[in-house]
Amino acid sequence: MGIRDRFADQYARQKTMTGPEKKANDIIGKLMMRKAIVPIAAMVVLVAIGIVAKIPWWALLGLEILAAVGGYFYLKNEGKKYQEFTPYVGNLISVEKKGKDGHTVLIKQGKKPIKLDLKYGGEDLEKLKKNTLVQITYNPVGKIGVVVTRNNFK
User: Where exactly are the transmembrane stretches of this chain (predicted)?
Assistant: First the structure.
């Protein structure tokens, strides 16, 4: 499969995504871009040290390739953490705003309330009324919450 086919598949998949999938994809993309800064900065520092220390070009190229491969596997492992979502369905009890970009959400699922700490995706829950049936997919590692279904707006 060539690069053109991969791009076409990715573009077609992006066009058929639902709203919650797009939102989760955007949030995960932003988080991965933040994680990508570490390998890029390491490669720039490696080049600077190589120039100052007058390391031969072939050794510097080898070190850069090692840094690129290490960065690839680092980003691959970090990306796996953000792909595991747990669905929660229940009545929305309360939404509290914590600081600048955090939210604490209480959902009553059956008889027990569930407390979710959200860092990303809590803005959608502020618009909902209390005691509405809501389905949220939650990632505890990234504290990402995406509202899948909602019934009543304020």
Answer: 32-51, 57-75
| 59 and 96 fall within a common domain | no
List, as own/partner pairs, every contact residues 109-116 make where C-beta atoms lie below 8 angstroms and the sequence separation is at least 24, other chains included.
114/88, 114/90, 116/88, 116/145
| Structure tokens given for 147 | 């509202």
Q: Say which residue the tokens 């690129």 belong to.
A: 68
Token representation of residue 99: 């600081």
Distances (CA, A) of 57 to 50, 52, 65, 95, 137: 8, 12, 12, 57, 49
**Amino acid symbol at 79:** G
Domain limits for position 137 = 86-148
Distances (CA, A) of 91 to 24, 103, 121: 22, 17, 18
Burial class (CB in 10 A: 0-12, 13-18, 19+), 2: exposed
Q: How many domains does the chain have?
A: 2
* pLDDT tens column, 65-111: 999 999 999 999 988 888 888 888 888 888 888 877 788 888 888 88
